[in-house]
Amino acid sequence: MVRRLLDGLYLVSAMLGAICFVAVFAWILYQLGGQFFHYIPRSADEFAGYCMAASAFLALAYTFNANEHIRVTLLVDRLNHSLRHRIACLAIFLALMLSVYLAWHMSKLVWLSWQLDDRSAGLIALPLWIPQLAMAFGTIVFAIAVLERAVLVWAGGPMESVSAQKEVLRADR
């Protein structure tokens, strides 16, 4: 039940990231339209940049859960099972510490931007906490995904996620 709930959270986060990625395309089209229809697109590149950052951060957890992040396993795969598990425990511990650190500071950045009423420097003075909120949410969900994986690895499970292993098995059939 918890796994399905977490997988749903990762999927929702990825879908929000996909929507932001499509919004990048829309902002670029809006900006290009200014050349053909003779209007000035105000801050379109700025908003496209916000959407691009949001799409990357929102997709972190889903990508991690699907084992699609880059991993270098050239040396680790050649080690015996016991040593490989110890290295996996250390690696997931470091990943957890870094992801929690990132989530904490991104959340702190959103709070500080809201408190100071920090605004963008473009023609449209957007409160910066709005685009930062998507990045903070993405890093929080990513930290949850890393924590879930850490609990599984520390309990003796594999470094790869169970749902990604099921996908590999389905593809092999």
Percent of residues in beta strands?
under 5%
**In total, how many domains does the architecture comprise?**
1
Helix content: over 70%
Largest sheet: none
Enumerate how many helices there are, as a single number.
Answer: 6
Low-confidence stretches: none
Question: How far is the first residue's CA from the last residue's CA?
Answer: 27 Å
- Provide the residue-averaged pLDDT: 89
Dominant shape: elongated
Radius of gyration: 20 Å
Element-by-element helix/strand order: HHHHHH
Indicate the structural class.
Answer: mainly alpha
Please give the number of β-strands. Answer: 0
Task: Describe the protein's architecture and organization.
- The structure is a single chain.
- The chain is mainly alpha-helical.
- It has one domain (2-172).
- Helices cover 75% and strands 0% of the residues.
- It contains six helices and no strands.
- It has helices at 2-37, 44-58, 60-65, 81-116, 129-154, 162-172.
- The protein starts with a helix and ends with a helix.
In short:
75% of the residues lie in helices and 0% in strands. It is mainly α and 173 residues long.
